[in-house]
């Protein structure tokens, strides 16, 4: 078999709708019906809810204001520079414009770069991000009156910037000045809805992140693909994974593709409410899960580690949680088993996707309570996959190689960057840059091709060792990298954030620190083959840097890798 695909047929995906039309008005066959008393969004701290009617009103009014004040049309770009917040996301974006969400932790130069690449005409900024946004707008060279501040207790009038609340009032008070996007059949496939940023897939160094052009059709298709995968429109399916009235967490950053498409658009389509959490604070997060009786958790592995290991989790009952999906970074099998004890009533597994595939490629099977250990889930309907081996031939079931996929949700390419597009987008197929094995339509991600270590000719995936390290009580977080070694080529070195108890031992002096290091190294050597042992050693650090999706920023440790350690008995032995 040279191609892999789900046997479940994908229903018709409308190619003449914009995303707001699909979310607000679509009569897609089999779509769950949202009861009138089920809100779109719920504000975490206050419990304030926003209904369908309110969200629709705000969307229309803001679109009208943008059209009147800045002449914003379908091909113009509006940038949102904000953490998760009720104000910017209540009006579902992309009603009349292309939308480019920005990471709120960006520096002035990073935001200026995004504005220049996308040629944004308007920037909507959270008060906490206002200083950076103001300087970036100045550096980019658009007028100050193109900067909008989100409503807040902050006195934005001091800065003379319009607020989104006033814009909505203004738009509602005026006659309609714009024409909502109305596509002819097929046009939604080429119309850009989102310019979302990615570091690329091929593993080649990039000077800057790349803007991925995502069409209205791609997002709509992926939502329908996930709904089909989970049999939401199948009346014969006994137990749905999501029902109207369910409550989903909204703690993943909405500017990231996982939060934007899976957490937001798929859940809204399914009739669920989303609890909007601006910032992840673990103690408060635990309270929010209970207070809102959340049923669906979309998380990344570092958050799941806290749920399993943090003392504040002990004794809590999460019987109302019925679905937990981990994505954006690999979750080890051991961690999956641990979290299943914390959430005994939940279906638990992983999903996998990219900004370039907008979004989901595979996900936990609809009939499974617990995902297969090491599996990122089953290919969803509409996705076709190939696995290309190092010699260029196509792998069969169970063989390893680079994952290449196609389907209706693929992005259009990298915005105005034909060179980068040609490296990743190949006649409708997307090179993921991930080494995988597909077995019985399940995708097992070995690791990023650019991150795999070669130890004595054997491939070693950092994610496998990191997942195992996180199970040790001395380890709060971990990153494994390969360092050069004359004998082995590379050997694994672990950077570890010690747990609170381990810190007490480490502060006792060098002997205590060495004791903890030996315990951690033994934890690996007791369970893994010798070429996976931490021959490079264990180094203690204060924090493991991660991007907003939870992926480790490995290059941060490159300066620490300045010497191959001395050979030990293990290093020179045979495996």
Q: What fraction strand?
A: 15-25%
Record field, number of beta strands: 27
**Which architecture of the largest domain would the CATH scheme give at its second level?**
3-Layer(aba) Sandwich
| Content-based structural category | alpha/beta
Domain AMP-dependent synthetase/ligase: 37-415
Organism: Hebeloma cylindrosporum
GO molecular function: CoA-ligase activity
Protein name: AMP-dependent synthetase/ligase domain-containing protein
Descriptive account of the structure:
This protein has 16 helices and 27 strands. The radius of gyration is 24 Å and the shape is globular. The protein folds into three domains: 4-18 and 219-447, Rossmann fold (3-Layer(aba) Sandwich); 51-182, Rossmann fold, CATH 3.40.50; 451-572, GMP Synthetase, Chain A, domain 3. The model is unreliable at 153-157 and 562-575 (pLDDT under 50). It is α/β, with parallel strands linked by helices. Strands 1, 17, 18, 20, 21 and 22 form a six-stranded antiparallel sheet that branches. Helix 4 (108-118) crosses helix 5.
What is this structure, in a nutshell?
One of its GO terms (molecular function) is CoA-ligase activity. The chain is an alpha/beta fold and 575 residues long. 28% of the residues lie in helices and 23% in strands.
What's the SSE blueprint?
Layout: E1 4-5, H1 19-25, E2 41-43, E3 49-50, H2 52-70, E4 77-81, H3 86-89, E5 98-102, H4 108-118, E6 122-125, H5 130-140, E7 147-149, H6 164-173, E8 192-198, E9 210-215, H7 216-229, E10 247-250, H8 257-269, E11 273-276, H9 282-291, E12 296-299, H10 301-309, E13 323-326, H11 333-342, E14 347-353, E15 360-363, E16 378-379, E17 384-388, E18 400-406, E19 413-414, H12 418-424, E20 425-426, E21 429-439, E22 442-448, E23 453-455, E24 458-460, H13 462-469, E25 475-485, E26 489-498, H14 500-506, H15 510-525, E27 538-540, H16 569-572
Parallel strand pairs: 2-11, 4-5, 4-6, 6-7, 10-11, 12-13, 13-14, 26-27
Antiparallel strand pairs: 1-17, 2-3, 8-9, 9-19, 14-15, 15-16, 17-18, 18-21, 20-21, 21-22, 23-24, 25-26
GO molecular function, one term: CoA-ligase activity
InterPro entries: AMP-bd_C, AMP-bd_C_sf, AMP-binding_CS, AMP-dep_synth/lig_dom, ANL_N_sf
Domain AMP-dependent synthetase/ligase: 37-415
């Amino acid at each position: 078999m040279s191609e892999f695909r789900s046997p479940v047929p994908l229903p018709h995906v409308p190619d003449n709708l914009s995303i707001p039309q699909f979310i607000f008005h679509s009569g897609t066959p089999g779509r769950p019906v949202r009861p009138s008393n089920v809100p779109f969004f719920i504000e975490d701290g206050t419990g304030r809810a926003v209904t369908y009617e309110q969200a629709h009103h705000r969307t229309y009014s803001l679109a009208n204001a943008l059209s009147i004040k800045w002449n914003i049309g379908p091909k113009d770009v509006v940038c949102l520079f904000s953490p998760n917040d009720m104000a910017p996301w209540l009006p579902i974006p992309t009603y009349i414009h292309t939308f480019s969400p920005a990471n709120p932790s960006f520096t002035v130069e990073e935001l200026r770069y995004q504005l220049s690449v996308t040629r944004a005409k308007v920037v909507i900024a959270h008060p906490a991000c206002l200083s950076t946004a103001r300087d970036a707008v100045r550096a980019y060279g658009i007028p100050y009156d193109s900067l909008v501040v989100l409503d807040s207790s902050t006195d934005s009038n001091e800065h003379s910037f319009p607020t989104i609340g006033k814009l909505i009032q203004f738009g509602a008070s005026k006659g309609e000045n714009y024409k909502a996007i109305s596509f002819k059949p097929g046009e939604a496939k080429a119309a850009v809805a989102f310019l979302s940023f990615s570091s690329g897939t091929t593993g080649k160094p990039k000077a800057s992140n790349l803007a991925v052009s995502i069409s209205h059709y791609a997002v709509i298709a992926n939502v329908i693909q996930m709904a089909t995968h989970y049999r939401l429109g199948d009346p014969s399916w006994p137990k749905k994974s999501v029902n109207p009235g369910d409550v989903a967490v909204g703690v993943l950053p909405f500017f990231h593709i996982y939060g934007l498409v899976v957490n937001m658009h798929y859940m809204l389509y399914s009739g669920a409410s989303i609890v909007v959490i601006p910032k992840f604070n673990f103690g408060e997060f635990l309270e929010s899960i209970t207070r809102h009786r959340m049923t669906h958790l979309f998380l990344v592995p570092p958050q799941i580690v806290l749920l399993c290991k943090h003392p504040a989790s002990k004794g809590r009952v999460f019987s109302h949680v019925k679905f937990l999906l981990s994505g954006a970074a690999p979750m080890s099998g051991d961690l999956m088993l641990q979290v299943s004890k914390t959430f005994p009533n939940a279906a638990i597994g992983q999903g996998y996707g990219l900004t370039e595939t907008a979004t989901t490629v595979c996900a936990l099977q609809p009939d499974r309570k617990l995902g297969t250990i090491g599996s990122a889930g089953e290919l969803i309907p509409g996705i076709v996959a190939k696995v290309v081996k190092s010699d260029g031939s196509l792998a069969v079931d169970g063989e390893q190689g680079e994952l290449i996929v196609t389907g209706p949700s693929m992005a259009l390419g990298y915005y105005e960057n034909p060179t980068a597009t040609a490296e990743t987008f190949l006649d409708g197929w997307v090179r993921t840059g991930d080494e995988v094995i597909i077995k019985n339509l399940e995708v097992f991600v070995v690791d990023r091709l650019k991150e795999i270590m070669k130890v004595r000719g054997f491939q070693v995936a950092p994610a496998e060792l990191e997942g195992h390290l996180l199970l040790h009580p001395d380890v709060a977080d971990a990153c494994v990298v390969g360092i050069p070694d004359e004998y082995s080529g590379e050997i694994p070195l672990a950077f570890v954030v010690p747990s609170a108890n381990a810190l007490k031992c480490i502060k006792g002096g060098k002997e205590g620190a060495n004791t903890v290091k030996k315990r951690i190294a033994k934890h690996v050597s007791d369970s893994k083959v010798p070429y996976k042992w931490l021959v490079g050693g264990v180094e203690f650090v204060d924090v493991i840097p991660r991007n907003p999706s939870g992926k480790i920023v490995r290059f941060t440790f490159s300066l620490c890798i300045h010497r191959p350690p001395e050979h030990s008995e293990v290093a020179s032995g045979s495996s």
